[in-house]
Amino acid sequence: MFYLISAAPNFYFTAITHTPEHRNGSNYPLLKAGKAIQHKWNTVIPIAILAHYGLVDGFHLFEFFSQAESYLLSINF
Fold first, then answer.
1. How far apart are CA 71 and CA 1, in angstroms?
2. Distance in angstroms (rounded) separating the CA atoms of residues 75 and 27
3. What is the largest CA-CA distance in the chain?
4. Burial, 29: exposed, middle or buried (Cβ in 10 Å; 0-12, 13-18, 19+)?
5. Which of 19, 44, 52, 77 has the fewest Cβ atoms nearer than 10 Å?
């Protein structure tokens, strides 16, 4: 599978809108990660994903975020 991943390390966001490529359709997920901040006692990293429902469903998104969280907790981020 092909992913387009970009980072905005100086930009913390609560919502973001991706601009999908309409010529080829949405045949790959778009992922954007933002600036990590301290919120109370936790480190918060904004992650936005745009994916077509024919490519990814809620279970896949749940699995992605569960694995990402497990990895970040294992490295004491």
1. 21
2. 32
3. 44
4. buried
5. 19
Separation of alpha carbons 48 and 17, rounded Å = 9
CB–CB of 14/39 below 8 Å?
Answer: no
The tens-digit pLDDT sequence of the chain (77 residues) is 566 777 888 888 887 776 666 666 567 788 888 898 998 888 888 888 888 777 888 898 999 899 988 998 898 75
Task: Provide φ and ψ at 15, rounded to 5°.
Answer: -160, 150
Domain boundaries, the chain: 4-74
The answer to whether the beta carbons of residues 14 and 41 sit under 8 Å apart is no
Q: Amino acid identity of 15?
A: A
